Each structure stands twice: as C-alpha cells, then as structure tokens.
Amino acid sequence: AWCFCALASVMGLLLMGGAAQAAESATNVQNVECVLLSIERKVEVISKGTTQWRPGRPNEVLPTGSRLRTGLRSRATLRWSDLSVVRVNELTTIEIEAPGQPGQKPTLDLKSGASYFFSRERPADIEFRTPVASGAIRGTEFHLAVDENGRTELTLLNGEVSLQNAQGEVALRSGEQALVEPGQAPRKTAFISALSMPT
Fold this sequence. Notes:
- The protein is α+β, with helices and mostly antiparallel strands.
- It contains one helix and 15 strands.
- The protein has a 15-stranded mixed β-sheet that branches.
- The protein is globular and about 40 Å long.
C-alpha cells in the first residue's frame, strides 16, 4: 500500500509538472506576436517603457509596444505568429501595437518609410495605422509607404481593405491603389508605380 501511494504521489507530481510546462508553453506561444526574423545593416529596436534604442538581434521577439527602425540601405524582416511576413524597407520606423480585440494580430503602426506584407499560407487579417489613415486588410499581399509628412500610399496586390480617416473612407480590392494626403480623404489612384521592396 505504501509503494502504491508513493507511486501515485510521484505520478501526480509528474503530471502537475507536465501541465505547468504545457501551460507555460501555451503562454509563451500566445505572447509571441512578432519576431525580428532577419536584419540587414543597421536595425534598431526599443522596448515599451524604455527610452534608448539598441541594435536588434535576429530571431528576437518583439512584444507589443516595441518599436523598430532601419537605417540607410538597411532592411528587416518580421514574422508574425501565423507565419505571415512583413519586410521593412530602409529609413522606416514602425511600432507593434496591441491588437484592437483579443485573439487578433497586433496592429502595425507605420510612422514613416515603407513595408511589404505577404502571407503564403492563406489570407491573413492585419490592422495598420499611419499618421493620416488606418485600415484592416484581409489578404495575402500589400505594400504600404509613408512619407515624412504622413502622406500614405497603399498598394493592395491581393485582398481587400477599407482605408479610412476622419475625412472619409475608400474600399480597395486586389490590384488597386490608394493615396491619403494630410487633411484629405483617402482616394483611389492609378496602379502604376513599381514596388521598392525586394522579392
């Protein structure tokens, strides 16, 4: 009887330990919203609540509230937890904001510069914000560029989006492009400019 009780106690401890590890792993997976997959030349990050930029590291986890910026002739690649990818161009500053609702992907706040998003597996939902507009994209590929004055250009290669600000709103589908000037409503433009991001 003593042996049985001892064995039961050991098994109980092992099961509890396994459950705790599984819970911890699940928590870690939930907390991994964005990973700095690769860097080229000068890529810096700053964590929420800190004031000093530091060099980014490949495979570094970027929790919500983190900012990333790239220098001249520098690039970075971010990977979300659903394996969709954001390529960040040179002279770009972005912030990883908390999702608007539980279970959603964090918001990509593009302060300035350009980024290219793609998802090979399936259409993905991603919310974005710039100084002059915001939107929620459902798709697999788009290019977003922001000038220093906030002027925003969105090229939707595959998917659909409602681009909006206080002045108005425009709906885009695959193969369409929109421009948002400071203080003006979003408007569709001719899809003629080539993407600057590498393939």
